[in-house]
Prior knowledge:
- By secondary structure, this protein is mainly alpha-helical.
- It is built from three helices and no strands.
- It has a domain at 14-79.
- The radius of gyration is 16 Å and the shape is globular.
- The relative contact order is 0.15.
Amino acid sequence: MQVYCRLEVVVHDPEAVTSLAGQQLRAADIDWSEEDDDVDTAVSELTADLVESLAGVVDPDRMLDGVTGVEARGGRIWAEIGEAHQRFQPGFQDPE
């Protein structure tokens, strides 16, 4: 089963979002020897981009926490600036 969700967000404190994203990246269980970047470079790049930082701190696996008999098996989160794309409007019919 697929669940689709569009969430409109207003960021009142960009510093809080980017700081949390940086903290979570530093705390992540990543073997940096296998990566192209080191942790400091990756954190610097992430915290310089509010959209990427916000997308990074949203956790789709927690959306169903506490719902008995349901297991989240993964999801995709992204963030965009501006109005929602037409495909995310109620009643949109994909021509394909």
